[in-house]
Amino acid sequence: MQWLDAIVQGVLLGGMYAQYALGMALMFGVMRIVNIAHGDVMILLSLIAVSLAGVLPLGNVGLVLVIVPIAVGLGWLLQKFILNRVVGADPLPSLIATFGLSIALQNLMLEIWSADTRSLPNSDIASASFQIGPIYLGLLPVIVLLCAFCLTGGLDAVLRYTRFGRGLRAAAADTEAAAMTGVDPKRIYATATAIAVGILGLAAIFAALRATVSPSDGSAQLIYAFEAVIIGGMGSVWGAFIGSMVLGVAQAVGLRIDPGLGILFGHLVFLLVLATRPEGIMARKK
Amino acid sequence: MTLEINPKSYVDRRSLLKGLAAVTAATIALPHAARAQNAKTIKIGMISPMTGPLSLFGETDEYTAAKIMELVADGIEVNGETYNIEILMRDAQSNPNRAAELAGDLILNDEVSLMLPASTTDINNPTADQCELYGVPCISSNSPWQAFVMPRGGAENPFMWTYHFFWGLEDVLGTFTGMWRSIDTNGKVGMLFPRNADGETWGNEEYGLPSAVREAGFEAFAPSMFEPRTNDFSAQISEFKNNNCEIVGGITYVADLKTFITQCKQQNYTPKVVTVAAALLFPSGIEAMGELGEGMSSEVWWTPAFPFTSSLTGQTSQEIADGWGEDTGKQWTQPLGYSHALWEVILDTLKRSSDPQDRDANREALAATNLDTLVGNINFADGPHPNICKTPIFGGQWVEGEDWPFDLKIVDNTLYPDVLEPDTAMKPLDWS
To answer: Signal peptide span per the entry (chain B) (predicted)?
Structure first.
């Protein structure tokens, strides 16, 4: 029973990682942009949400409706004015640009919000739970998991069946050939980053409800997003979702074996996947 | 009197805005005529975590240094001679390696006569090590004395140059158990320690909390240390639940505590008492807990209710706290009292020194300190270790506040009953 509980809690934890990983799957997995500032952008959105919650009586749903459009706009600007200038066959310039952006964002946030730890006012939803047999399921983690599931399905469908999705995959595969066939890679990339950061906006609100945020927290969660994408397989949106579940369950099971080992277990599973199946669990056949 | 903030070419967040403002203000306040012409200058190095995760400690250091600057604007008089004071303030960015580097630079290039690594183990220890190496008197605070002495190998050989005043783990234990005894529980304690420098010290099986808690008659359950910023505490919660722990104690940071408490509520685990060090020190930490934060308890080492007054300004603790509230618009925090007391000790040392520009003379004066400060009497003669002086500690509980969301009330004075009376009795947590 203890192990069943560990797996259930691990899947719920995976839901949170999946929200971090989806945007990463799009940027890193599909577009091959290594965005080091991924975590910092999320913290920025969380802090904006916390500040907004202090002045506007929006409620959590209202907050989502405000923050996600801000996030979409931010993502678009990020790609348009920074990443589009450095993106190309060589992954290094975008890596360096986002590394610099990460440092700049952290210090900007320190200047504006100071180092205080903040969180959204603890509404009932964050601590509510329901019981199935001997297992307690937190309401918020379940909502997070469902949101992650729907977002994954939606994003996968967009990539597969829409004109934009085809354009994005084409531009990612061969930018010049795609441009010759009438796709505007820079515009497509800007839209894709807008979507990726938009998802992060949702994750940001959940993160601020669930735990606390402070300006230097961004990089701590970044690593899980990277790992989830790589475990799942580059380029596969469902892969990122499955990768997050694997990571979450590995951590939760590791924690039950010894509370000091949980995070290590996650990393070990990641290394195991890299060693035995480096293309990832769900990677398409070449 | 000059305050120099990072005069090198690098620009940090504060040197542009606040730093420039502070320096400008200081210059305006000090027309050149008021400065002692041709007077000698005493250089004091100050290293503080002004940015980064520990910056809540650095916040009061920076504020207090500016206040002290105003105070000694005309210099200080030692043995009939007037000296200008120059404070060289450096930001360690909460990074121990950087603190060591800055300390070396201040000692070798700026030739400071005295060093002040203001707060936290991560900044104190590397700075103090450099001071020990190069022979510079150094005074620090804001970390348990074991964390200052043990990791630096001071247990067998006392330090020559570095002095520290604060409480120790034995005191925090006495305070924690004092609070726990005042509540009706089954005496079973679940303990949380992170896997970092603090967690290793506090959770140490030899001199840390778990064994001491057992000796004090409680039953302690300490799962192995967790990685800071763990996202899932269900393993610890299920262990505490299975053992029916009605008390949760230890040391955590705010982010981890919030995750833990939210999951406790989700998992229907409702301990009567949650007493943790570190996370609950600062008002912003307790505010992050939201409603669940009310009733949580922590150690208290300075509050506006402290009965001592400043040897520099004669202000009471309440007046210092009020000044902070007016100047910053924020609620007082505990390091404020210690930031002030450190400067009391420094200026007192310099005034008693036979030659305040000489490191040896300053060391002798520092070692002979016997001063009543804002946080109590500082005297290294009768501490638990030759370089240590212990200061008072109490148990406090956060309750719904009047001017601020939460107020910290003293609920236990087991160790220092003469200093302060408790404000109220401790109450069990209300989880509904």
So the answer is: none
Cβ-Cβ pairs closer than 8 A, A with B, add up to 124
Mean pLDDT of B206-232: 88
Give the chain A residue whose CA is nearest to the CA of B193. A260
Question: Chain B residues with CB inside 8 Å of A137's CB?
Answer: 266
- Domain boundaries A9-276, corresponding CATH code: 1.10.3470
Domains in chain B with CATH codes: 2-167+304-389 (3.40.50.2300), 170-300+394-412 (3.40.50.2300)
Triad A57, A205, A218: Cα angle to 5° = 135
* Spans of all domains in chain A: 9-276
Non-local (6+) Cβ contacts of A187 within 8 A are none
The pTM (predicted TM-score) of the whole model is 0.83
pLDDT digits (tens, 9 = 90+) for A196-246: 999 999 999 999 988 888 888 888 888 899 999 999 998 889 999 999 999
Contact between B55 and A110 (Cβ < 8 Å)? yes
Q: Do A136 and B268 touch (CB under 8 A)?
A: yes
Secondary structure (H, E, C), B366-394: HHCCEEEECCEEEEHHHCCCCCEECCCCE
CB contact under 8 A, B55 and A118: no
B196 contact A CB<8A: no
